[in-house]
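hiii, so i know i said id send this last week but things got crazy w the move. better late than never?? heres the sequnce for the chain we talked about at the cafe, plus the structure i predicted for it. fair warning i was half asleep when i ran it
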Amino acid sequence: MNRQDLIDAVGAQTETSKAAAERLLDMLIQVIQSEAARGGGVRLKSFGTFEKTSAAARTGRNPVTGYLMRIPSSTMPKFTPSSTFKDLVKD
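okay and structure toks below
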């Protein structure tokens, strides 16, 4: 399912226009991104948690040359699915 398929499904299930469903999806994504970027988390019951995480600096190996190299610390977004979501996706 791609973005347009999701918009179509949300519009059909909520009996709203595709334009309204697209605005809703855009705002949902914007709110989640903004909250995670400022360091807060977004927890959606039965779905999961979006949050900002930090990775410490570490030493890695260049796969081409084999030389050790320093990988700087970084921050990145993280999604952790809820146990309900995990159970639904299981075989």
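btw Residues 7 and 24 are 9 Å apart (CA to CA). thought thatd interest u
miss u guys!!
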